[in-house]
Predict the 3D structure of the following.
Amino acid sequence: MCGIIGYCGEKSAAPIVLEGLKRLEYRGYDSAGIASLCDGRLLMKKDVGKIDEVNQKHNLGSLLGNTAIGHTRWATHGGVTQDNAHPHCDCKREIFVVHNGIIENHQPLRHRLERKYSFVSETDSEVIPHLIREFMDMGSSLEQAVCQAVKELRGSYAILAISASEPQKIVAARKDSPLVVGIGSGESFVASDVLSFLKHTNRVIFVEDGEIVSLNNDKVTIHDGEGRQIPREPQKVDWKWSGATKQGYEFFMRKEIMEQPWAMRCALMQDRGLIMEAAMDILRTRQVVLTGCGTSRHAALIGRYLFSKVGGKFSDVIMGSEFHHFSDSIHKDTLVIAVSQSGETADILEGVKKAKANGATILSIVNVVGSSLARLSDKVVYLNCGPEIGVAATKSFVSELVIFYLLAFAMINQLREGMRAIKSLSLLTRKNLNHNGAISPELAQGLKGKNDFYYIARGINFATAMEAALKAKEIAYVHAEGMPAGELKHGTLALIEQKTPVIAICPADYTFEETMSNVAEAKARGAFIIGVSDRNEESFDEWLKIPTVEEVFYPLVSIVPLQLLAYDLAVAKGLDPDKPRNLAKSVTVK
Ligand code: M6R
């Protein structure tokens, strides 16, 4: 998960890399470091902490030189210590490497290399600079040595390497971890994502698995593993740098929640032909399987209801991390719909690759243009909601829902009507945000001492309960469970005590009456009921009012107050909702 970035050009490299690292911090934030090349010498600073903390201590941007690489870490192998922070180097400190991914065979490699070189960290990554050293000692150039070294690695990696013997050069390689090159004028960039250098250039080349890239100011060459040059033209990405700034908000999450009416309209900007074709694929294909992780899986669960309720088509949802275990049943008569904001979630990519190998067709719903999932897919529908930086997914969730609505309405040849309805819902969402945004901080204050929260709902609304619980867990650090309301009495009811918060998502739709029976069961055991509905009820201790909409659209409006509540709970507890502990935005390890 970690973020990596390199710069090679005429400007002072470290400040540019430092700024890029701040943009990559959503990928990991337990330690950070930069190495630069200056007059044939390598300089390096790294430490434990968020980038601002490490920078305050070491002034990372003061490193001299026009070539630099940087890393922000999300620990996998080895604790959060200064030695385990990247960059890592060879014994002579002449080769520095940053790595994102996991080297699965690091132990045998380490045992072999330890006979020659001494290791200073507990990481899997440290084998890489020593391997490169070994090949360079045999006469290889940095580029040849990286190419030889990666042939020995198993697992996933995006690597940047610099060497004192080759000034003004960065060599990069990737397998199963994202890597993108930016071409500026007289300068080049290479990083885990476009956002980190978007301020400088939007001309990019997406690096493919197995490729080795050499950057030398604005000269970028790509080779395959056998040393054959691969010609590749840069493409333009149309994300804006301003989309990745807080624009006056205290936290990205707040900004992204408030942006949702706009995000809904952006998700409507689709090629209608593509949506119609995708809808026909759903109707025609014998077996339709949806997959996603976390929030994207919750969107897929709602998608499944929509396909059934609106389009009359049964489909199933398999969570991303389990999907590859079902590959025996995935074949050429299967349409896989893979949902992912980042398009880089390793669990999804693994399952999708297996499904593809079995002959399945892949339709993906993705936000990040050019991401690995997008490039693996037969058809891609983009969310168009701009960069989402907060670790907790918010605007990408509503955008994913909008795409599912479009597909479902296209299945019954009512795409235009669906689009119109969502457009007017985006206006209601603004009112919904304003109303609940005003009452949620006080409610959060009253709840901040609570440790257990239960979210219940039925039918199309049940995945909203799961999504709301996930939000509360990840940013407010409370135990929160989301479940179908009917399941409460099958076990969880035993946990309800006096004043336990039970959040009932019970809009005035076909699920209302049955959910209210479950509310009564919880209330009878002393639960503190927070009703999310367009209809107030006596049993509610608190009421989060949502607008009245057509039945199928309730998921779009009922998630809003619950995103706000999770956010306000985190803020009330003095937590940073953008960077929850132990998590990262883009989960590129299995
Ligand atoms: O980028 P993806 O949509 O594939 O990410 C999937 C999950 O990792 C993600 O939704 C995660 O659960 C979020 N932090 C939830 O807020």
